[in-house]
Design a protein that fits this description.
The chain is built from twelve helices and 21 strands. It has 415 residues and is of the alpha+beta class. Strands 1, 2, 6, 7, 8, 9, 10, 11, 17, 20 and 21 form an eleven-stranded antiparallel β-sheet that branches. Strands 3, 4, 5, 12, 13, 14, 15, 16, 18 and 19 form a ten-stranded antiparallel β-sheet that branches. α6 packs across α12. The longest helix is centred in the middle third of the chain and has 19 residues. The radius of gyration is 21 Å and the shape is globular. The chain starts with a helix and ends with a helix. 44% of the residues are buried.
Length: 415
């Protein structure tokens, strides 16, 4: 399918890597071509995608970039969000009505097209040759935006804000970048999928901008009137080849007071966000402090759901909850300004969300983490990693956690 899709300059491939969760509706989804599209900057972007959705009662695919925070958590004083360069180039919001949608399930494939003949598309896919391996390219050398010492000093500064009562928790991220970088995004996707298969993975192309994503985290899903959010807060290393040590790492994460405090604060934030658009009394925590294994890490995941009010459009659920609490902190309004003050890179699509909307207005969006971002025109390759900072955080441990989260990316790139 991806060989067939590769010539399209707008393409979205979503893959849950056979995790088998009952909350997954599809094994894979592929959307290519754009019959219509909406591209918008923060300001009235969500209204634009709402209008677009009302116009097209059909499949929609696309993304919300983190910088929509300017719209959902607006600051009312100059300089609240200093402008940072954006070498990757994804817009704040982009959605498209695809020409072709392919649904892949464990036992079937379904092809829908607005203008082409599905049997012909299937024949083209069946006859497509496997992607040829790219010729070797120069080794990649990534440069951090923060030195280790500068990162540790920044965490200490953020803890002073927490001590003063400015916030309770803040998600702080740092970027590693390579330029010039020459990669084949499609081959890199296969490499990352092999190194770090995760249930909310995605390969997303918007002209020269690529997202190669191995996310383990769901931001928000809508099924009928039910909204489900599954924030991740809490990470420990996997110990390959040593089941006893791996089980101890898992148990240590489950019992960690620091990770539990991070997780429960985000759960409370999600409950508060959902209560803005859900029927009173329906917002509930289905699971608290669940520990789930992934290829490189154990993660602490909680589940929160609620029933969307009958008079609310699906976009209003995004308006009430974006950016997701796991990538901001609490209180969201204040930490958004601290993120802008202390981080040295524009997040762009990183810590945003990518996903789909069905013709019935159900949707499922991930959290864009554990991802490579690539601008093929400018030969700029980047990844960002972060962690939740609380008063109890050990700056050295937070730095180590960032490096652990990048292991899958580094393995895929052979570095």
């Amino acid at each position: 399918m991806l060989t067939w899709a590769s010539p399209f300059n707008i393409c979205c491939f979503l893959d849950n890597h056979a995790y088998g969760s009952p909350s997954h509706r599809f094994e894979c989804l592929l959307a290519v071509g754009a019959v219509d599209r909406v591209r918008a900057s923060a300001g009235n972007a969500l209204q634009q995608v709402k209008d677009f959705s009302l116009r097209h009662k059909d499949w929609l695919f696309g993304h919300f970039a983190y910088d929509l925070v300017h719209e959902t958590e607006p600051m009312h004083h100059p300089g609240a969000f200093p402008s940072l360069p954006d070498p990757i180039g994804f817009p704040d919001l982009f959605f498209f009505l695809p020409e072709v949608v392919i649904e892949l399930r464990s036992d079937s494939i379904r092809i829908g097209s607005l203008h082409s003949d599905p049997p012909m598309i299937w024949e083209q896919i069946r006859c497509a040759s496997p992607m040829a391996a790219s010729p070797g390219s120069p080794p990649l050398h990534f440069t951090p935006r923060f030195t280790r010492e500068a990162y540790l000093d920044t965490i200490t500064a953020l803890q002073r804000h927490i001590l003063r009562g400015d916030c309770y928790e803040i998600n702080f991220c740092q970027e590693f970048f390579a330029r010039p970088a020459d990669i084949d995004p499609w081959q890199t996707w296969w490499a990352l999928s092999g190194a770090s298969p995760n249930p909310f993975s995605a390969l997303y192309r918007l002209e020269d901008s690529y997202l190669i994503c191995a996310s383990p985290e769901r931001y928000l899903k809508k099924t009928g009137r039910i909204l489900l959010s599954q924030p991740i807060k809490g990470t420990s290393s996997r110990i390959p080849g040593d089941p006893v040590a791996d089980a101890a790492s898992r148990e240590g994460l489950f019992r960690s007071p620091k990770d539990r405090s991070e997780n429960v604060m985000v759960v409370d934030l999600v409950r508060n966000d959902l209560s803005k658009v859900c029927r009173p009394g329906t917002v509930a925590v289905n699971e608290l402090y669940g520990i789930y294994p992934f290829p490189q890490v154990h993660q602490m995941i909680s589940s929160v759901q609620g029933e969307l009010l009958p008079d609310r459009h699906w976009v209003e659920a995004i308006q009430a909850t974006f950016p997701m609490g796991s990538m901001t902190g609490a209180p969201k309004y204040r930490v958004a300004s601290l993120i802008a003050q202390y981080e040295r890179s524009r997040r762009g699509i990183f810590s945003g969300a990518i996903g789909y909307v069905t013709p019935e207005e159900d949707f499922d969006f991930n959290v864009v983490i554990r991802s490579l971002l690539y601008n093929s025109h400018d030969r700029y390759l980047s990844y960002q990693v972060g962690s939740g900072i609380t008063f109890y955080s050990d700056p050295e441990a937070e730095y180590a956690e960032c490096l652990i989260k990048a292991e899958g990316i580094k393995k895929a790139l052979g570095i």
